[in-house]
Input
Amino acid sequence: MNRHTRLKTRIALGASIGLAVCAAAYADPLPDSFTYAGVTLFATIDVGYAYQSNGVPLNSRFPGGLEYQSFTTTRNFSGSQSTLAESGLEQSKVGLRFDIPVGYDFNAVGRIDTGFNPLSGQLTDACASIADNATLPQGKQTANADSSRCGQAFNGVMYGGLSNKDFGTLTIGRQQSLQLDALANFDPQALSYAFSFLGYSGFNGGGGSTQAARWDNSAKYVYQNGPIRVAAEYSNGGNDTGILGKAYGGEVGVNIAGLSVDGVYENEKGAVNLRSSFDDAPNYPLPTPGLAAYISNDTSWNAMAKYVLDLGGSADPKAASNKLAFYAGYSHIQKAHSSLTGLSQGDYPLDIGININNSAEYNMEWVGAKFSMPVGLSFTGAYYHISQNSWTIGLTPTGTQGIGCADAGLLCAGKFDEVSLSVDFAFSKRYDAYAGVNWSEVQDGLANGFAGTTSNGNAGSENQTTFMIGYRIRL
Output
């Protein structure tokens, strides 16, 4: 084959690939849903490319692969990162939904799903990402931090129950907390890993502890009557879960025209908090002594609102129109001492080296807006802010030394700010491409431990800028 023929072959091959991609995007040959007898298969694959001004190399098991914000427990930034990336908008996952009529206007309902990393094919396992890095020094680690996804067969949710339009829905199993459910509706960036603190960190969704974002051994009841909705959730907790003791929560919400308002309260006894470790702990990794951790009793109060304004834009009143949505939220979280001990999710043993003496308190606020067009194009901007008080700890699970800001800078008051902008274009209901930028900064106590910040935690800052483009396929 001569050079001219090879060139034509390459052009033809490139054109064929391009046409295939366009055909897949615009023709959308897939059915509306993969449903049979009330059982629906669903899946998401979200991949892309990211550049970070300061970050940590990709980890094949860490949820999202990268540390997308500077609010992190590793203090591990090691310079700029340029890499393939994953799950920027949404955790890649696969699962089944159930909605099967069983008579007397009742339906059997349920869901099972598990998150995976599409670049490696592995189940997401944040606990393993911490364990794998425990013997490596600061600045040499890959991405790692706490999460409720710790390699379980179904690291998302697994529950079942009954639903009735007049009596509500009752489900039992492994379920998202009420706060995490609410954030999915009231976060302008829809819990994106790459562009939302509320998505990347489960701290708020777990009411103060990331492992508590999903409740094992739980029962949840949701009731809607016209514009009013109420919900309640209870968990027995237990060993090798994110909550070692009992937990309960309640939610009240209302929809009036384009306005939605929700309030959520949660109380968790014995929430697990994992701490990333460096090579000064020579007995790591597992099984002896285990993942560095502390246990807390968490209480959170949350208020959220969203207002959707219909801007019209079409001569046909039945056609889709331009919409502008505004978002706002506030959370107050208090973390206090807990004497409970046990295993983390994924059955990882724990090394509980500290406990809370004087409570840690966090105030979180966020605002944002999203402009959506009928052609599938949307633009989103969001701002997130967190402030932390100065708090104290004791050594060992029961110590009362009252170690505070003067001796451990991470315990000093600090704050976090994040601003993100993103654009998304949906070719169809199953295919979309996105791009965005996220800037975040930690200051004072929350910045303590990053290279280049002050050692006492009273001053200093660290920031990160992330650019990401990606493509998402949803079944």
The CA atoms of residues 408 and 456 lie 7 Å apart. The chain has four helices and 22 strands.
